[in-house]
Design brief:
3-stranded antiparallel β-sheet
């Protein structure tokens, strides 16, 4: 016995049979693809094709996750560099303020 599953071509969501009374919730996570208004569904009967499609979506998610991980690491590195530069500049400013104060004290005396 085979169960026909409908696969949303854009989302990859499995649906047994669509119910006309309940509209499907569209979760695009803020991204509108080229077919944002026209969602086409196709019926996949072959389990191998379904497995292939699911694995393809899993790979896409992992690739996106890797991209986001790299971006977070880059932001962390930039934050460390900015913090180090701020600390050095703050130290330099304090040293210059101390030097100005010393020179002003020498002029008064």
């Amino acid at each position: 016995m085979t169960v026909d599953k409908k696969i949303d071509a854009n989302q990859g969501a499995n649906q047994e049979t669509p119910t006309p009374s309940a509209p499907a919730a569209k979760k695009t996570n803020g991204a509108a693809g080229p077919a944002a208004g026209t969602r086409r569904q196709r019926i996949i009967k072959d389990p191998n094709e379904l497995a292939s499609l699911v694995l393809m979506h899993i790979d896409a998610v992992h690739a996106r996750k890797d991209d986001l991980t790299a971006a977070i690491k880059n932001l962390a590195d930039i934050t460390k560099q900015l913090t180090r530069a701020y600390g050095e500049h703050s130290k330099t400013i304090k040293a210059l303020q101390q030097r100005i104060k010393t020179l002003e004290d020498k002029e008064v005396v």
